[in-house]
Amino acid sequence: EPTERGGYLFGRGVSDNKGNLLARLQAIEAYRATIGELPLRIRVLYEGEEESGSAHLAAFVARHGERLRADGCVWEAGYKDAAGRATISCGLKGIAYVDLQVRGAKKDAHSSLATIVPNPAWRLVWALATLKNAADEITIDGFMDLVRPPTAAERAVLEDLAFDEQGMLRIHGITRFVRDLHGYELKKKHFLEPTCTICGIVSGYTGAGSKTVLPAVASAKIDFRLVPDLTPDKVVSLLRAHLDRRGFDDVEVVPGHGESPSRWPIDSVAATAAVAACRSAYGSAPVVYPLLAGSGPMAQVCDTLNIPVAGFGSGNAASANHAPNENIAISDYVDHIRAFGRFLHAFSGRVLD
Amino acid sequence: EPTERGGYLFGRGVSDNKGNLLARLQAIEAYRATIGELPLRIRVLYEGEEESGSAHLAAFVARHGERLRADGCVWEAGYKDAAGRATISCGLKGIAYVDLQVRGAKKDAHSSLATIVPNPAWRLVWALATLKNAADEITIDGFMDLVRPPTAAERAVLEDLAFDEQGMLRIHGITRFVRDLHGYELKKKHFLEPTCTICGIVSGYTGAGSKTVLPAVASAKIDFRLVPDLTPDKVVSLLRAHLDRRGFDDVEVVPGHGESPSRWPIDSVAATAAVAACRSAYGSAPVVYPLLAGSGPMAQVCDTLNIPVAGFGSGNAASANHAPNENIAISDYVDHIRAFGRFLHAFSGRVLD
What we know:
In chain A, 35% of the residues lie in helices and 20% in strands.
């Protein structure tokens, strides 16, 4: 059950993304109750498999594409930045989630045998260390070759983009960013570059105290956030070839869910209407991101049907999606109702006062 | 509770080392019941902290050393090899157990932030990969410099040492040893070289399916098996300096239990009596190892009091110490009673028939 505390609502999925989904339905109700008939046709597509790869969405879109056609899409996610500014995002990174698994002896052995019996935990560590170096550069053969360098226009957008570095450091309790980056380079890495992340790793004894054991199995969960022209299939294929080339044929790659990246113009009709709606609702100009660094089935829907995207919502920079204490401010929830109602008005060509 | 199945006794500690400890008391009883007065004075030292570093044993030895003086020591551990031959061991490796711990953000974050928020799991993997390379060579600065090369005598012993490679491969369910070693090189690595073993590693999400999380903490448990002149203090000190030199000052080293290595002549009176006793009890010559690759508080007792060591016992090559299904053969238990009784006879200078 969600909990209200200090003006915030805490609960699993309250920011990602139950809050936004409900606020928008309430905005539609509010529009009808206060202004009258909706000025445009709204198609609502809510699906519940986003966090595990939306395995059934592509088939749904293929089957019902005609009923999903639209001139613009408001994506589910949206957040205030660390400085409290509303943001609008016009795309998502893709994702490729893989499990790496290594087996050694048929069961755990006494660690004195580590002299001669292979240790899958070491095999996994050595394999992982070839994927990304300590400068945080992804070193999988051919991987970075697929990353498009920023265009002059993208660079200009990022140069101008407001990004509250001190706020982000404070929220995450860290003293510096990866590579000690700042300014444009930090924004470029965050918005336009892929990731290779150990989301989890486990082998052997992990309890309190010590156990002198030689583990029989080791595994890691890795997620790659993808930018054009990386796709899940390409990543899995490059990863397998990279490991094989280095003798890590004992490291099994088990592909999990995947999504391709999706990018849309920051000056589409949808994005322009979102800017006007947020300015009116919040009383100040929103920050327009070229994309969110997260992932979702945007390509499955919007690339397939060619629908430009603008995303905005009720989250904040410390919403802690997927983590304990996920939250939204109740005032942000109400503001999102107001902003979404104004978006409907603006997107249909009406003037906001 | 222990379980008897197919001529074997299964239970925690049945091989390491309750079986041996009880068998020896029964051997003393049997000697008295069948032959008469013991031909020598026996001092029995059983302590229960061996698996966690025997933190109180050194003080006990310092206080009661006079009451522990002896001409020979039968160490607690002893095993048949993979070919079923009795073995005698005249030393132990030392051990240094450490926890490596890394902290990142103040709590787990959404993995899309991996672009800019440091990941302690990666920091740990990169740090670990500097400790040992994929050829299984320990690469900690100065570590291998402290390992004494084999003497000509040690080499001769190992050249002659019976070591059932096929049996070991079969028992552990592997197709080859580390570095694909065989023969003398395999035995040299197992008996005379140190180890650096990931006994456990954990970070982030390790359950079923996927979770796109950027972990806040990562940790690994490492055990080093030590040969002369490595000691626990030297290892911890070298490790800290090695990590600092490479910028891994964020990797905390938490020292756990430690033991120095202990080595004794394979032709001491104790070892010679053990060979005679095993030959008489088993009907064939035992294999004499320069040492067991495991660790224990041998230096705390025997180096302090200068007592030569011979270890033999009721374990087998698949006893699975510290693992599920730890076991001994009941016939090996009975044979150890017989061998230990004969050892008492031989060590006191009496002739075995």
